[in-house]
Amino acid sequence: MDGGGYVAVGSIKAVQAQRLLDPMSTMAVILLAAAAFYAAAGIVVAFAFAAFGVTRVLRDPVTVTVGARFLLIPGAAALWPLVLRRWIQQWRRP
């Protein structure tokens, strides 16, 4: 407000612009948090799968080398919901 008790036009536009940006910034924060959760869960599942689950999911008992396990980690991290579902299905089988 300036000396006469009136609100400056520039500050009204700034307040209106801020109101328009708030929903967008909230949505951006939500999307970034979801992406961070997906990535964190993927990393945890991928390392656990590479360490313990890869031999369980394979049909025939096969020895998996350390190098092959390292190569599986990026794909397992990206596709962790599918990897986890298949791992749980194999875990439930006798």
Question: What does the model show?
Answer:
With 94 residues, this protein is an all-alpha fold. The chain is built from three helices and no strands. The chain has helices at 9-57, 66-78, 80-92. The longest helix has 49 residues, at 9-57.
Number of strands: 0
Helicity, as a percent range: over 70%
Structural class: mainly alpha
Question: What are the secondary-structure elements, in order, as H or E?
Answer: HHH
How many DSSP helices? Answer: 3
Reported for the largest beta sheet, the result is: none
Report the end-to-end length measured between terminal Cα atoms. 75 Å
- Enumerate the spans where pLDDT stays under 50 for 5 or more consecutive residues: none
Query: Per DSSP, what share of the residues sits in E-state strands of 2 or more residues?
Result: under 5%
Mean pLDDT: 84
Evaluate the radius of gyration: 25 Å
What overall geometry do the principal axes of the alpha carbons give? Answer: rod-shaped
Summarize this structure as a short list of keywords or feature phrases.
94 residues, mainly alpha
What does the secondary structure layout of this molecule look like, with pairings?
Layout lengths: L8 H49 L8 H13 L1 H13 L2
Please sum up the structure shown.
The protein has helices at residues 9-57, 66-78, 80-92. By secondary structure, the protein is an all-alpha fold.
